[in-house]
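Question thread 4412

I'm putting together a teaching handout and wanted feedback from people who do this every day. The idea is simple: show students a protein as raw sequence, then show them the structure tokens that encode its fold, then repeat with a second protein so they can compare. Below is the first pair exactly as I plan to print it.
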Amino acid sequence: MPNTRNQMFSALLFLLGQNNNACCYFRWSFETRLSFHQTISAETFIKRCAREGGVSTGSNYVTMSCVPLKRSYKELPVWIVEDHHDVVGHIYRAIASRHLPLKNIKMIHLDSHPDLLIPVNMSADTVFDKEKLFSELSIENWIMPMVYAGHVSCVAWLHPYWAQQIREGEHRMAVGRDSSTTTIRVSSTDNYFLSDGLYLSEKQMENSKPLRLNVVKVNPVPPGHWSLTGRKPEEDTEGWFAKRPRPECSNAWGASCSEPLSGSVRLQPPAVGSNMSSLADDVDDSEGSTSYVVKRTSALLSETEPYVLDIDLDFFTCKNPFKELYTQEEYDILKELYNFRGPSPHADEEELDECVDRRVHQLEDLEAAFADLLEDDGEETVARWAGNPGMAPLAQLVSSLKLRTQCPDYEMVHQAGLTCDSVELPHHISTDEEIDRLISAMKLFLRALPIPTLITMSRSSLDEYCPVEQVDSVQSRVLAVLESLYGALDVNKDYENSSIETLDCQPKAS
């Protein structure tokens, strides 16, 4: 039996014969297993595949079904990480173990930030080198590389009312390779992508993959809704859930989903003197309501397809850590320096390309300026850069920073500036009551959706996007709700096993 990687691969492909679909699945399965450091012989590999399903063996042949058998976890796994991009490894392991499919994965993503940017200078081919990819990812850009790799095809970004970096509604776009730069780019013309210089027309892309993105606002359960409507919460939601069949939780993990839940959702209670009885009527269709969320997320899901439920704890309470690093005057100067001038509403291809080129040059100049200031922030250097078009406020910014600290961290200043384009980073430190109301809203819409295959969770506390004094409490409350919905959970606190150097932790643009 051949032992080397290439010999084993060639021998097994020969045994698989001419079944192209089978070979495609085999190639992924073989490469994925080896990529996770499982050294196995060809004979062991064949026997294992036969045992797990999808392969038949004979004395002189091996055949493989086109679609591998799905696998299910005994208990629903929850992987909790500190930095959000660390969930990618757990998603890849679920793909390797066939709990998630190789392609067309759906994701429900609860977060105050979209996390849909792209590593600007990363080669597109990096997505096929697992270790290199993981080293390139950051908290703001971990989803799109999985889209380009073909793993993820649908994302529902569920955001609280204080976060609106991407237009509400459904977006269809392509994610592909820019042949001129070999980097990954996206065809969406939303300012979120344009302001980072990530736009490229689909016709200019290579190896493009489709992405369906639903941007869905989630409003907290309003205070006193039970008394306002005069009805129990489960009565309010009964009709919503009846519109769409859903599996009982007991079918999967033995947990019942029949317990009463918190009330339906509306952003603000009605004004004094308004018609109280109208609340129950208009909540069903209002933006951010439970039925609104369910309709827009369930459009992406089927009862049988696996999907990932991803939760960032800053969805419930969120800080903009840069606001504490700089004065309001300094922050206003950063907004002026990094201001993004978008295209006209009905821009043609030429105008979009000009917009991207202009923005890329603007960001490159600012990055170069602050890199220069790291070496020498003397008057001559500052004056030289401030003389460039649009950079006059730089002198005032440097002067203000040097009044407060002898050696400003200009790299951090640039990171802060990158968040000051068309929309600021969200900043809303919730009270305990507000957190509970958002958790109740989450429980309501999750109750109406199919059970996820995998749950990933990010604390985002060391970089202070989720307030460190609140994160443990929020985490325990969210886990309690998930357990009430899905039964026993296999909770893995990956952040406890990570070697984290707190002093080196710095906030990044998101």
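The second pair follows. I'd like the answer to focus on this one:
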Amino acid sequence: GYDIVDSNGKAIGKVTSGTMSPSLKKGIGLGYVAPVFSDYGSKIHIQIRKNKVPATVVKLPFYKG
């Protein structure tokens, strides 16, 4: 999976799965991060090729239909 990185680009975890959500109209994913970055609301980034895509740690379930 893709690396999860902090704002400086340092690896802090790995994406385990991800996809585009038609309901939310944005990308969603699951992964593991270092405990210091696991608080809800933590701002992290997903390193996708040469791009750092912003992401936020949220509580599950993140969508109630």
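Top answer:
Good format. For the second protein you could add a caption like this: The chain has a mean pLDDT of 94. The domain at 3-56 is CATH 2.40.30.110 (Elongation Factor Tu (Ef-tu); domain 3).
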